[in-house]
Amino acid sequence: MSPTVFAEFAAAAREAPDRAFLVIPASAARAYAPSGISLTYGQMLARAQTLWQRYAAAGYGHGHRVAILLENRPAFVEHWLALNGLGVSVVPVNPFYRADELTYLLAHSDAVLAVALAERIGELAEAAAASGRKIPVIAEDAAVIPTATIPAPLGDAPGPASECGLLYTSGTTGKPKGCILSNEYFRMMGDWYINQQGLCPVRQGAERMLTPLPMFHMNAMACSFMAMVLSRGTLILLDRFHPASWWADVAASEATIVHYLGVMPAILLGLERTPAERAHRVKFGFGANVDPVQQVVFEQRFGFPLVEGWAMTETGAGATIAANREPRHPGMRCIGRPGNCEVRLVDDSGKDVATGEPGQLLVRHIGSDPRKGFFSGYYKDAPATAAAWAGGWFHTGDVARRDADGSLYFVDRSKNVIRRAGENIAALEVETTLLKQGDAAQVAVIAVPDELRDEEVMACVVAAPGVARDEATARRIVAWCLDHLAYYKAPGYVLFLDSLPTTATNKVRKTSIQEIGGDPRQRPGCFDLRSMKRPRKAASG
To answer: pTM of the entire structure?
Structure first.
């Protein structure tokens, strides 16, 4: 086993230097490479080694962290590999983050440098200044890399336990948590994927995996990337999901595997039938949260299975579940049977529930080390790490049920977390931001159903004295959130209420908001403002 991600990649490049490693179709490349890009293992290694030398000369080394805002581009992989080889951990930055979110990430992560696309440097530099820390911000192709100062790098070489990445994920406590992920975490993620077999066979040196998922998430960065490196396959990286060109990209790239999120099958099923949708080589799609009603219909129409799985950034390959073997119960939200992990389903008192009954999903790795393959902990939050591992089991917060054959079925999301098109949104973070705007005296953010995106954000608002409960106020609230949060976190609906229902301890009873009066989207005083939610325009460079 190689000690680092870079070492794993270097081994692959020595074995298959001329094999295509990274392909970016023309539809995803935009102005920086209008004809698309194809890089072999040998070419990518050479690029990373050149950057390695430049970073080493500037004094970067084991124990440092560098933030990278590089989207789904070759630069992301080049900088990650170069820094990893030196023992530097990367902090991937969500390109949809706004000023407040960027400032928090740079301050909390203790990054000593930030690398960004040229058009984002100014914005990131402002966030760095606001963080109160002196963090140089450079372009991904900068001629000069500033010298690393404090702290000094560690004196030893990086190994499997060394931090490879610090990935931020939304939780229930407002601000995103930084998940410390080791080199071993990434290696195990790739190992698990290529060895799961069943409906998901991965052939050595033969697979071509297409993913539109972002590299700042663990799915693409750990699962897709490492699976292709360890199997000497080809990673086909889209900048995002393009419905109109999807099947053309799948066919032209000769993809044998595709990754998806729940919103994608729904959109593809809504397109007109064309010969292109069956002119592909795809063996299986791997993802999560497909609408149960649409799963079987999709598989019949497009000719390959959608293999549903379950994982969290925290669990990594230590506890990853997938419905990759029969019976997989399509159309029933089945996530498969545990393979590399032990599972408990418990009620609110921590007691195991009966077969068929829903309970909170607790997981741990099989064998002597229950945390093997999991994240190393939440950065600067030992109490939250300890709480998550209470009793020696990782508490996921997700609710599932188990049937007689051992299959697990996903039932509900983590408390106070909204799942919109694959993004986890902490309701508390949105509530905190919204209250700063001034039009709301009280607010509760909840999830409501969405036909395409699984769930949408709704802000239930008690207006401040003298504030009109009208569309103009609702629009101001949403516009404020769009200025301060990533677009997907902003409310898609604003519902004005006279008061918020509370518990005996004066906590907002969100279930009552959703249950009283049926669908809250249909209640008087609700404004549908989903049309205001638009991602930042893609960079043209």
So the answer is: 0.86
